[in-house]
Amino acid sequence: MPEQSTGARPTLEAVAARAGVSRATASRVVNGGAGVRPPLVDKVRQAVEELGYVPNHAARTLVTRRNGAVAVIIAEPEFRIFSDPFFEQQVRGISRELTAYDSQLVLLWVEGPGDHDRIARYLGGGHVDGALAFSLHDDDELPAIIDRAKIPTVFGGRPGAGADLSVPYVDADNRGGAREAVRHLVSLGRRHIAHIAGPRDQTSALDRIDGYHDVLVDADPALLCQGDFTEASGARAMAELLERRPDVDAVFVSNDLMALGALRTLRERNVRVPEDVALVGFDDMPSVVEQSSPALTTVRQDVEGMGRLMVRLLMRLLNEHGTQTGAPASVITPTTLVRRASA
């Protein structure tokens, strides 16, 4: 815990002395610089916490030429951001990692094209050191806007066609996770396996469709139904599937929220899960899984961890800005099938 204040503001020298490092080393850690061994980083951060040291933002900006702020841009309307636990988990991971770098999160969301000018002005105004952008759509102007702002950027999710492939991104193994989900349903002896897909203008949904077809190469097109990652769309798609293919005996759903909606429809139609229809989701969102009955079998991706990774890649870009080392490589994180009662 921070020490009780004696009236004097803790100095960087005091932090260095407490941590047993030089002032230069303490400064590099506090200012987010590279080249410090992890054990020393931990000692400096512990000293900062114990002493209650607060960096002088104005002085640090003059030295580092940084604002200590990062724009987090979510290309979704406000109602999606605050209703979908995926965004909550990713922003939590970003926020926690930015705190470790003593940097602030500035949240921006895009309700529609009318917001593009506002975001372009903000990014071009020198208010932030870099940007993290996720939930991008194929026709999104955001990548071009960010590129014109000339600020270091990391994308959340593999960018779609036309995006600058030199910009690093963090994504889950969506295609591999989908394959594992469908293979599991096949192993249960299910013969008519449907897929409720996410929006086709997002690469995560397209990759999961591809994973489904990797296993079921000749799947009947009538077994593929469209959703938009919301619970309501999952309920509608499940109703459509039951009318179109009453013999469906398993469904791989592209995210947990849609799976929750599908379960609701099946319950209303008196279709037993998993006896009549086995169901697998994607994400493993605790707040959603807790609501599912029966407990949802799903593909786990580390959403909070991906948020943390995005920040680390961005900090590498900031620290290497102007060097010849090039952008850090993009990262694809593994997924895992979590078996529960629904399949």
Write a compact overview of the structure shown.
By secondary structure, the chain is an alpha/beta fold. Helices cover 44% and strands 15% of the residues. Helix 10 links the parallel strand 6 (193-197) and strand 7.
Description:
- The protein has helices spanning 12-19, 23-30, 38-51, 57-64, 78-83, 85-100, 116-124, 142-149, 174-187, 203-215, 231-244, 256-268, 286-289, 303-319; strands spanning 69-74, 104-109, 130-134, 153-156, 169-172, 193-197, 224-226, 250-253, 278-283, 297-300, 331-333, 336-338.
- With 343 residues, the chain is an alpha/beta fold.
- Helix 8 links the parallel strand 3 and strand 4.
- Helix 9 packs parallel to helix 10 and helix 11 packs across helix 12.
- The chain is elongated.
Distance between the termini: 47 Å
Point out poorly predicted stretches.
none
Share in helix: 40-55%
Q: Which overall shape is indicated by the principal axes computed on the Cα atoms?
A: elongated
Please list the strands of the largest sheet in the order they lie side by side: 2-1-3-4-5-11
Number of strands: 12
Number of helices: 14
Structural class based on helices, strands and sheet pairing: alpha/beta
